[in-house]
Design goal:
The structure is a homotetramer. By secondary structure, the first copy, chain A, is of the alpha+beta class. Chain A has a single domain, classed as Chorismate synthase AroC (Chorismate synthase, AroC fold, 4-Layer Sandwich), CATH 3.60.150. In chain A, α1 packs across α8, α4 crosses α8 and α6 packs antiparallel against α8. β11 of chain A pairs antiparallel with β11 of chain B, so a sheet runs across the interface.
């Protein structure tokens, strides 16, 4: 199937461009009988939407979702769920210049040579705006996983540019525009962003995502390991340059005697695995981290060439996100939810329905989740 | 399609277990008319095979591949290519004990609860032995990519446990059992491995993979970005816990003014992107890094439980790899080749045949590849 | 991928229900650079739309399509093409009764037991209205195939109930509401339909579809033969109960000496194969026939049961098609076009781009097409 | 996925050529825990194998299957099941001549122009020999369906050339080499075949296939209707030119008042639908018919051309099947079983596990199956 569909059984097919009339998704394979309304979806969309603080793009989009199909009298019918979000704040008058140039770090160059030309309006299909339908689709997955397994998702910023953001408490995440699980570091982050904006520059971010109450047994050997499909989904988010599961790159310098998570009758003693063993969920908390590169659209002039290969200087004007990572947390959660949902269905196809298989030992040990 | 098939158009479906009668793969979608013989495949298999140095598993396997189909008078016909490798050194007499226990860090626990029971002989399906058919299949992809685009692959060890392995020269890679691109560090690596083995412990590794002469335009928005499919393939390799493209996690603390690779009439000035822009190959060298966790089978006793949840102590006896990362380089190359091959076919399906589209500017600038 | 997507590379994912707010499709994998506007699509939609004669459903739908994405400055960009058709004539007030009963021959019974309940409004997802997005999507495929290979499609009614409709001339097809390639039989067909309507009954139809200038080489052994994928697509149309390629069921009683189409330097002498050999297009005219069952919604009372299994009598009131086959011709053409388009892309993925491979002998011989 | 894989969740990937070293299949997605041995598979293979009567090809093949993987201690593990059948009776010495010519009705012409050349040995990939791995794979599906739902399959010859073969009793099918459910017609069929062989000609056949105890609810709207996937699978069998479900082409001339199967508290009153409603199984007996064309390899000379387009005469020498339809019954059963198995898993993925959902009314009424 083509590149705009995610998943094998719970599939999300998106369409739309940044400055076209609308964006949206078709969600197929949703189990029937689940209550669903626009309100269930809107909450997550609102967490992602632009313009919520001065640190992100000032584009004004309500991101109001319309369910076009797949729901009857408030319940999913098993038919595909059409989701539509109209674009309202397109400003595409003056892209003519952009069409002739390649902005360093942007998709321009690759799109141009792949397709022969490109839609330059706000990045077209390569815009981060296209994560909105993904977040909308994932809200459906989250609801089902919550109802069936009690699965819960949360994400938070682990690092903003050079500043590490220590995890204090989950409750802080919703209290600030950075999705920081930390109540004291916000002024420092705000100062950092203001300085960046003044310098006409941008920075990257590290986002952490977690899922708890994940059923044991999700993921398929060999190629479609749960972590492999998570890596695929995460690396599919705009600007992501790295993905880690559990100890990630730290495991390179760990000894085996340290890395392997001991098992005790009351659960795993640690979580270096990040919740997967042999590519299959172990019931422990799933732990994923992603690296997001600094925004390419900056006010600082950069060397580039035009489509004829002639040297030019490129400098972004107008609104932009100095750190796309700030709004990435709900997107990363969404991707994780979509992968789990797809694998929950794949698992019950092959192995039958299970309501969170509970082994003689609990999957997690008190206090083992945050080592 | 189920989890044992990789790719959409150039598909590799593997089968087999560590200690079953045979392992193998069916490679479908190969373009017709390419000369192919067992010899083309055997070379890569030999680079991966066990028992080549004292630092890896001492299992004796010839890994001799037989082509069962898809080739007529030395040429691929377009029909699926069946590849068969007989297992010869199975020692599965005494697995009874293993069946009752979960080895920390192993797939045992997850397989047991997913499938209800498991094949314990040498790890069954979760054994790293199953990378052999992948390497065999990828040899076909490499050959085609080389003939069509001049694409070349190489990988090397970037770090062994705590020891960084500086890149000196590609030519050294084949001169030592570590795939180190460095001629001086070998004694240090050997000493480190000997010490680990004495300590009954294991370590992780960081592997770097590169592809040059990659056509511009490979990769599909949105979900099947080239880097997304690379991440999927790499995370599907046993023991991989992290994947990076280009600057990877370093991009978190980079400024946009630094990260974005400038373009000049003679090529890109740097390669922080790792060869993809917007998920599409830019023609620059592809750069991927993976983190491999330390081997779970160690001589050091670990706490665990048996399948009834009772506490036990687990200690591996007999042959094992103290660092599975040592043999991972050809496997990582193989995965990269399979992803590129699949996307080369996907690209020409949608956009027509191209023989390495050459833009007015060359994709790489003299000296820009190793910054 | 789930059941609402057709195709591997040129994929059509539809959504919507008969009486929901909208129906539509996402068309992914379209080659870039083709001029496309709503007008290109509307023509085929208009041929399919209801209410065009007194012999079909009187539902009033404009079936006006909106392109939501994938086109920039009048050209396809390679991004997914979102197509939206708003429903305007929904009359869903009084379905309460239908929800409790199973109409004989309808999907009610199967949907109810598959999903646990169903959307009863106008048949919900099982309505023939859902062929509109398919026709819209196929208009894109037809345009591309025409431009690249000169491929042309036409279909016609071969039989209406008990009345065979002899083929006279292609030009007549557009001159009557039955898609009959015959100018003299129309009064007889009209009389037959009027009589049926008076009797409160319905009838089936046999539709013939043809494609000419089909490139040689489309179709993939083993399972995805061109004819296999055509059969899949055709049998996916509502009410279709049979599919034939070429001589079809007549080939059962043919001798091999008669059935096998002789080859001469000026082309094939006959076309019993229907344009495929070994599941691959031979360049001859593609010939497909489908059987459409009589409409299940009839004014004649039928025995049935309610959802509790109690006996009831079911009798349709209000508007309905006495022969859904009358409007099926453009739908069958659409399905054929989608399959050819998908296989055209699949072929050039594996075998490279070909502009209608021309063998030393022409694929068709003068006069051989209509034997 | 490429064309040599059937199914979405229960996937069968075949490889091999008629005269290569081996043929085989990888069966992926099989539920774990089912007992399975070669003996379970061999029985169906033996029903299909050549050389069992004087009316079929005299090629001597034992068709002995080896299970290479996916089974541990006699039970399926959930890992892919590798199946291998060595070819033993290849006679490929003198194909040189065939390579230069196109045999009318054969795949030669299409393969040649698709791939640029072809494997001529016994038809290569296009040989009916490749149905052996399909039959082997389907034996696994049949076993699982039988154990879970009590599903049973049988097929029989409905017509041989011009001779209709009336259905008398299922028990006769295994008593004659024609799979005729009729004990009296056998001498007539044998005489017909002897005459054909003397005439150097061949004939077609009509095969009927049935499945009973099919769970309600299998099949997916819109495109992957159960009947659509059945049509795809059946048309994928060599030499099949037509597929019917239930009343098939007879439904064209049926009135709606006759065609629609009445429902009564004790079941359906008839079975014109053939066991599907809206593309979803209704629990009634599944009824499929296929048309098989006469064998193309005949002793009668036919006009053709060589690969340079020059006129030639083609005449088959040596062993051949004068009616490939004679051995097609177990193949058609196999295809039906594979489709049902795949949809059984797809259904429980989306809708949860069901052990043959039993509605308040039974799916079939006493005596309704053979109307």
């Amino acid at each position: 199937m083509s590149g705009n569909t995610l998943g094998l059984l719970f599939t999300v097919t998106t369409f739309g461009e940044s400055h076209g009339p609308a964006i949206g998704a078709v969600v197929d394979g949703c189990p029937p009988g689940m209550t669903l309304s626009e309100a269930d979806i809107q909450a997550d969309l609102d967490r992602r939407k632009p313009g919520t603080s001065r640190h992100v793009t000032q584009r004004k989009e309500e991101d109001k979702v319309e369910i076009l199909s797949g729901v009857f009298e408030g319940k999913t019918t098993g038919a595909p769920i059409g989701l539509l979000i109209r674009n309202t704040d397109q400003r595409s008058q003056d892209y003519g210049d952009i069409l002739q140039t390649f902005r360093p770090g942007h998709a321009d160059y690759a799109y141009h040579y792949k397709y022969g030309f490109r839609d330059p309006r706000g990045g077209g299909r390569s815009s981060a705006r296209l994560t909105a339908p993904v977040v909308a689709a994932a809200a459906i997955a989250k609801k089902w996983l919550k109802e069936h397994y009690g699965t819960e998702f949360y994400g938070y910023m682990g690092q903003l540019g050079e500043i590490e953001v220590p995890f204090q408490d989950k409750k802080h995440i919703a209290e600030n525009p950075f999705f920081a699980a930390n109540s004291e570091i916000i002024p420092q982050l705000e100062g950092y962003m203001d300085e960046l904006r003044k310098a006409g520059d941008s920075c990257g971010a590290r986002i952490e995502v977690r899922a708890s109450n994940v059923p044991i047994g999700l993921g398929e050997p060999l190629f479609d390991k749960l972590d492999a499909d998570i890596a695929h989904a995460m690396m599919g988010i705009n600007a992501v340059k790295g993905v880690e599961i559990g100890a990630g790159f730290k495991s390179v310098s760990q000894r085996g005697s340290v890395h392997g998570d001991d098992l005790h009758p009351d659960g795993f003693a640690s979580n270096n695995s990040g919740g997967t063993l042999g590519g299959i969920s172990s019931g422990q908390e799933l732990r994923v981290a992603i690296a997001i590169k600094p925004t390419s659209s900056i006010m600082t002039p950069k060397h580039s060439v035009d489509i004829k290969g002639q040297p030019i200087t490129v400098q972004t004007k107008g609104r932009h996100d100095p750190c796309v990572g700030i709004r990435a947390t709900p997107i990363a959660e969404a991707m994780l939810a979509l992968v789990l949902m797809d694998h929950a269905l794949r698992h019950r196809a092959q192995c039958g329905d299970v309501e969170l298989a509970v082994p003689p030992i609990p999957a997690s040990r008190p206090g083992s989740q945050l080592d």
